[in-house]
Amino acid sequence: MDQDDKIAKKGRNKIKIAPIANSKARSTTFSKRRFGLFKKAYELSDLTRSHVKILVITDKGCLYEYASPCFESKLKSVKKVVPMMTNERILKVSQTLNGSGL
C-alpha cells in the first residue's frame, strides 16, 4: 500500500474513486450513495433554510429526484443564477482547497 491508500479520517479509510465494473456491486453502491446524497441534501436544506433539488439519471435511464418542500414555487423567485457545478469544477475547487483533489 502506498501512503495515499493509508490515509484515514475519523476511523474511515479513504477509498479511490473509480468506476465499479461489477453491475451488482455498482447497483448496491448506487442505492446506498443515492440515499446518502439525498439525506445530505435534506440536511443542507433543513440547516440552512435553502431549497435543494437533485436529479440523478442512472446508466439504465432511471431518474431519481429529491426536492426540498416548496422547491418549485421558490424556483420562480430566483434572483441570481450561478454557474452549474460540473465534475471538472468540483475537482478544480477540491484541489484548490486541500491541495490534492478527491
Automatic annotation (TrEMBL):
Q: Which organism is it from?
A: Echinococcus granulosus
* Descriptive protein name: Agamous-like MADS-box protein AGL11
Which InterPro entries does this chain map to? TF_MADSbox, TF_MADSbox_sf
Q: Where in the cell is it found?
A: Nucleus
An example Gene Ontology CC term for this record:
nucleus
Q: Which SUPFAM superfamilies match?
A: SRF-like (SSF55455)
Q: Which keywords appear in this protein's UniProt record, sorted alphabetically?
A: DNA-binding, Nucleus, Transcription, Transcription regulation
Coiled coil location: none
According to its UniProt entry, one GO biological process term is:
positive regulation of DNA-templated transcription
Q: Name one GO molecular function term.
A: RNA polymerase II cis-regulatory region sequence-specific DNA binding
Source organism, top-level taxon:
Eukaryota
Entry's Pfam families? Answer: SRF-TF
| Domain MADS-box, residue spans | 10-70
Query: Which Gene3D superfamilies does this one have?
Result: Transcription factor, MADS-box
